[in-house]
Sequence to fold (507 residues):
Amino acid sequence: MILSTKIVKRSKPVILLLLLLPSMLWSTMFVQGNLGINPIEKLMDELGQMALRLIILTLIISSLSQYEFLRSLQNIRRMIGLTAFYYVVCHFLTYIALDHFFNWKFIVKDIVKRPFITFGFINFILFLPLVLTSTNAIVKKITFKIWKKIHYLIYLIAPLAVLHFYLLTKADKTEPLIYLGIILLLLLWRFYYKILRK
Amino acid sequence: MKIFGSEITPYKKYLTRRQFIQSSIATSIATTLPSNLYAAHEKQNNQYSDQLSQNDSLNTYEEITTYNNFYEFGTGKSDPSNFSNKFKPRPWSISVEGLVTKPGMIDLEDLISNFTIEDRVYRLRCVEAWSMVIPWQGFPLKDLIKKVEPLSDAKYIEFETVYRPEEMPGQKRKIISFYVPWPYTEGLRLDEGLHPLTILSTGLFGHDLLNQNGAPLRLVVPWKYGFKSIKSIVAIRFLKEQPKTSWSLINPSEYAFYSNVNPNVDHPRWTQATERRIGEFLRRPTLMFNGYEEEVSYLYKNMDLTKHY
Fold:
């Protein structure tokens, strides 16, 4: 059984909707006042964690699509990567607009001084080249080889995202460590696969 | 009922013009949001209004009892209210130990009947940069200290939270840190414990403390970060040397013994210059000693507060 490209491509709108749904849900709950006692913190946490999960999802898809019968999954990887960036932007905007209400002086100081925010910001910057090279036209222009090199950045972005989460966690670091474990397993898997093929 | 100087003195005007414009925009945003999101908390016409300072309003009972840090019940903010129903705060007794003339077990009911329970409206500032205003009931810790008569050697007080993994799901594993065992401990210098602002609380909003708030007896030290105000106390020890406290063992560079609220000493994880008052949209500037500078700064007169943070 091969997962056909046709099916994957056809389900793209549904998948996109599903990926965006949580953000719509949380913003509705936020406006309605149903996001708990400290809604800004809650919104920021949820958006950030969703971004991390989607980043990891792109890695999972890359690994899975190495298998012939799942190759078609490659067709949704870009979309998931871009939705991950969408959540990163929402997360960052929540921090700027809701948490610190455009207090730029304060925000800049916060980014420079607090390591976990520094790493979050670096990750946002590292994401930009990936987003900017995400259309077919650009991939053609810069060649697939260069595109591929640029997109290796995801191997830096994923662990940095976990580090960002790990550093802000005050106690009980189980959750960020689970994410780290998943990333390491995926990397091992990919490494193993490459050697086996050779 | 005692009214403190700082509670009456008008709050410093800290808004510059720019911030004022910013805040009026923010207010208009905040008021377009539904009232249950950023509620204007009750300020006047409540029995605690005479203890409220001008710029404060009380947080709601719901906010105070469902947004808690009490890792013995889990690290999530709603874990303490969700997972503390098995905990039995009565019967209860406190063990007084160490350098005192009258050590021993004190039954909670005896303790409460011996002292006058007072209302104390305090700001609570968490090290995570959020804050609340809470109407506590309790008695000054100094009443208890005087009753047990510390020896002249006693310079510090150590407090210990109860250890009951069967009733406190967070204690089933080393949730705060894999190298720091339960129970949670905290400490004060003896003169901090004797300060009239320091209380042992038994209730809030006129109710007995709920489990998530540290039932049946907790410390409240309003000029220090919230984690110093240890909950569900079973032991009070008088010591010569400064005790090791849980958070200072977990991460000494971030949490020190004193942990006085201080907007000028940065924390690597959270800014301490501002805070979000729960229920408000704009952050507020954090006040030195959480606004209790006038009352407590003499305790630290000759100390370098950037070193002893």
About this structure: Chain B touches chain A through 33 residues (CB under 8 Å).
